[in-house]
Specification:
Elements: E1 3-6, H1 9-18, E2 33-39, E3 42-52, E4 55-63, H2 72-86, E5 91-96, H3 100-105, E6 109-111, H4 118-121, H5 124-129, E7 135-140
Parallel strand pairs: 4-5
Antiparallel strand pairs: 1-2, 2-3, 3-4, 5-7, 6-7
Length: 143
């Protein structure tokens, strides 16, 4: 299964909702970059990337329950990191309530929410969609 850019936002929203992730800020007018993996049954894994110059927000990583534990999430994160680095991103940030250990294995480090850069604090993910209990993680990806 190949990773591909995703432009069909309704399929993305459906998978995110099925996985319990927020979709309220995903609008056609200002779409994050989405990458996904499809199977015969449709979209089975997705990740989003919001670019802000040298910083980016990795978001909306979701894998359909039937396709978990097959390395799809890792592949999508690595792909998003590569894309981000190729457009000049130095640091990736993300918010999570359930996947800290997964992201730690991929080299992400915890950061106090108070230390988030203003551009990340201004995102809907940070300011309204993700609860205060969400952990902020970062990874330096300079190439």
């Amino acid at each position: 299964m190949d990773i591909e850019p995703i432009t069909d936002i309704e399929n993305v929203k459906t998978l995110l909702a099925e996985c319990g992730l927020p979709v309220a800020d995903i609008a056609h007018s200002k779409l994050p970059l989405f990458f996904g993996i499809r199977a015969e049954s449709g979209m089975v894994a997705v990740v989003g990337l919001e670019l802000f110059g040298s910083a980016a927000l990795l978001r909306s990583l979701a894998v359909s329950p039937a396709y978990r534990s097959h390395g799809l999430a890792r592949r999508l994160v690595e792909h998003a990191e590569h894309v981000a680095a190729s457009v000049g991103v130095d640091t990736l940030f993300l918010l999570t309530t359930t996947a800290s250990a997964f992201f730690a294995r991929l080299g992400y480090m915890p950061l106090s929410r108070l230390e988030a850069p203003p551009v990340i604090k201004a995102t809907a993910q940070f300011s309204t969609l993700c609860s205060e209990s969400s952990e902020l993680l970062l990874k330096e990806i300079r190439r």
